[in-house]
Structures are given as structure tokens and as C-alpha cells.
Amino acid sequence: MFGQAHEMDSVYANSSFMRPTIASGEKPYQRNVNSTQMQEREREVTSPKPTKVLLIVLGFSLVFALGGLCALGMLYNNKLADESVNDQHMFSMELSAQQINNTIMKKELNDLTARYNTLRNWLSFYDAQFCNLSVDGWIACRGKLYLFSSDKLNWSSSRDVCVSKEAKLVTITNQKEQDFLVSKVKQTHWIGLNDLETEGHWVWVNNQTLKETGVQFWFSGGPREPDNWKKQDPSGENCAALGDERGNFQSWFDASCEKLKTFICEKIY
Q1: What's the CA dihedral at 179, 263, 146, 165 to 10 degrees?
Q2: What is the pTM of this model?
């Protein structure tokens, strides 16, 4: 008994190293709680740093990316503005060049017009001088010889006289020829136009129609010619003359083929 009691005392005496140190007034379970909280705080303080760093890097990356996009946008807008300015400049240059070309062309056209008028006046003067040349009573003008007869004959006899001279009654094919003949006559003259075969179908002695020659200068001052007046000749007026007895030498008139008139012959030389 005594031995056992001694052993128990020894155990209790040595068991002091097993008792945890507890602050006065502190309960054991409170110490455990505080220890847990401290550990959590330490974990919070010592949370993984790489995650925060990654977030910061991403944030800066986004900022730089947005900045880069803004810079690119500004550069693009500047490029568009530069291209617009260049386009306007090119358009202005092209417009200026076109205006210069138009001015040059207008000046050249004016010069050509002036030269044409000068040449036309010179040719008119030359024609007037050349068409006054006379050879054996024939007047040369623009490749033809004209004979203005002083004898008065009816239309068919006038035609025959021209043929005897290796010529024919005149055929008028353009305005210049008409003007030339008008400038030379002082009385009515037979010309080589008639509608003897078919009334209203006027034909030249070379068998050309008015439609084929393309010109006609009938009097239109009223009454209009040809009028085929039959008061003096029941057969009508089937032959044409340049001018009439009233002095209208600018136009053609139909007349009775039996009237006596001077006439105009022509031939090619």
C-alpha cells in the first residue's frame, strides 16, 4: 500500500510537464480558439502574391491596350485626313490643269477662226478676181466657162445655140454659182431647167433633178414660183429663167418656153 501510494505521488509530482501553461483566468478552449484565429489571419496576410501580381499586370495590359487602340484610331483618322487633303489637292491641281487646257484650246480655236475668216475673205477676193477673167467672151469661174448671150431666143433655141458651142444651158448646183450668175445679169436669162415632160417635175438639161442637185432658188415673194400661169400661154409655163421682167434677179421664175429671153451657156474647161 505504501509503495503504491509513493508511486502515485511520484507520478503526480512528475506530471507537471504534461500540463499546459494556462494564463491566469484563461480557459483551455479559449486558447485553442485564439490560436485558430491567428492562423487564419496569417493566411489572410500571407495570401498568394502571384494572383495579385497577375491582376495588376492584366490591369496595366488593358490600360496599354486601350491606349494603343486610341493611338491607332488617331493615326487612322490622321491618315484619312491626310488622304482627304491630298485628294482635294489633286482635284484642285487637275481642275486648274483643265482650266488651263480650256483656256489654251479656246485661244487656239479663236486663232483658227480668225485664220479661217482671213482665208475665206482672201478666197472670196480671189474668186471675184478670177471669175472676171474673160476668154473669147466666156467668163471662167471655178472650173467652168460661162457665156452670157446678148441675143434673145426662146428656150429651145437657146438650148440649141449652147449645144452648137459645145456647151449647154447653165445648170445651177450651189449657192456660190447662183450668187456669181446673179452678179452678172442685168435682165432675165434662160437657164437649163424645165418640166416639159411631166408637169411639176423639174429637170435640168443634164437630166439631174432638183432633188439630186440639192438646191433651188424659186421666187417666194408671192405668188410663189413656179405657178404655171396659163394666161399668156395655154400650155403653161414649163421653162425656168433667172430673174423676171420686174428686175427680181435673185430668184428663179417659170415662164412660157416661147418667150424670147437672153440665156446663159456653160461648159467645163
Answers
A1: 160
A2: 0.55
The Cα 118–Cα 124 span in angstroms is: 10
Q: What pLDDT, on a 0 to 100 scale, did the predictor assign at position 48?
A: 52
Q: Which three cell numbers stand for residue 24?
A: 491566469
Query: 171 with 266: CB under 8 angstroms?
Result: yes
Q: Which CATH number fits domain 147-268: 3.10.100.10, 1.10.10.60, 2.40.10.10, 3.20.20.140?
A: 3.10.100.10
pLDDT at position 209: 96
> Can you tell me the distance from the alpha carbon of 263 to that of 259, in angstroms, rounded to the nearest whole number?
12
Q: Rounded distance, CA 108 to CA 15, Å?
A: 132
Q: What is the pLDDT of residue 168?
A: 98
CA separation for the pair 50, 38 (Å, rounded):
23
pLDDT along the chain (269 residues), means of 10: 43 42 45 54 53 72 74 72 73 83 87 80 57 86 94 98 97 95 96 96 96 95 89 93 94 97 95
Closest CA to 269 of 197, 181, 123, 166: 166
Evaluate the CA torsion angle 155, 157, 159, 165 in order and state its sign. Answer: negative
Domains of the chain, residue spans: 147-268
Q: Is 268 helix (H, G, I), strand (E, B) or coil?
A: strand
Query: How many CB atoms neighbour CB 191 within 10 A?
Result: 25
